[in-house]
Specification:
The structure is a single chain. By secondary structure, the protein is α+β, with helices and mostly antiparallel strands. It has a single domain, classed as outer membrane lipoprotein receptor (LolB), chain A (Clam), CATH 2.50.20. 32% of the residues lie in helices and 39% in strands. It has an eleven-stranded antiparallel beta sheet, with helices on both faces. Strand 1 (44-53) and strand 2 (61-71) form a beta hairpin. The protein is globular and about 50 Å long. The N and C termini lie far apart (56 Å).
Length: 220
């Protein structure tokens, strides 16, 4: 009996890596399929509302406007409220234009957060799973709803250790083939939460991490 138990335990132990690998392959295939379904022809634009939680501030900074993928590695972030500002990423440079001020430009290498935003946003809107996988380790989770589109979360962890010292992870929540929320967790504890598309109109007047997480996970 003891010998049989040991044999069964050994066989189960040998089987676990196979099952774990199969599960990982299925999850990876599902993530690849989802990312491909998110692709949009350029130019692609979406409304956003962002709340940025910083340790040095008592209240989050809230801005809203429009994100635009212009094709290739060109990304535009236009802020309409509370003040007007346009940031454009193109050809390895970031150009910022504010009302009443001269434009200023700097190398993208000086802003790891913007590089991560570029890689993730361009890869998602381009449906480019290969590019996303080159820059990030990807974890995929989904929940099926009866009579409705599947809810899903992609967790992106930067592969570059230098970038990871600034950006710990990005989580993207969505339903069906629509990303609805992007959460960028910085290594120092700061957090930026972007509500996308129709969800952008639901940014609370006084957002908290908890209320935004609830919106990202279950807001309709």
């Amino acid at each position: 009996m003891t010998s049989g138990s040991k044999t069964l335990t050994l066989l189960l132990g040998l089987s676990l890596p196979w099952w774990a690998t199969a599960s990982a392959v299925e999850s990876d295939a599902a993530a690849q399929s989802l990312i491909a379904s998110l692709g949009r022809p350029a130019p692609a634009r979406t409304a956003f509302a962002e709340a940025r939680f910083m340790k040095v501030l008592d209240q989050p900074l809230v801005v809203s406007g429009e994100l635009g993928w212009l094709g290739g590695d060109k990304l535009e972030r236009r802020v309409d409220h509370p003040s007007k500002e346009t940031s454009t990423i193109a050809d390895g440079e970031v150009t910022q234009q504010r009302d009443g001020r001269k434009p200023r430009s700097f190398s993208l290498k000086r802003a790891p957060q913007l590089q991560v935003l570029l890689d993730s946003f361009v890869a998602l809107l381009g449906g480019d799973a290969s590019r996303l996988n080159q820059a990030f380790s990807i974890t995929f989770d989904s929940t099926r709803h009866d009579g409705g589109a599947d809810a899903w979360t992609l967790t992106l962890t930067p592969r570059d250790t230098r970038v990871a010292k600034t950006v710990a992870s990005i989580q993207i929540d969505g339903r069906g083939n629509e990303p609805r929320c992007m959460r960028m967790q910085e290594a120092d504890g700061d957090l930026a939460v972007d509500l996308l598309g129709v969800l952008a109109t639901r940014m609370p007047v006084a957002p908290t991490r908890e209320t935004l997480l609830a919106l990202c996970k279950g807001g309709s």
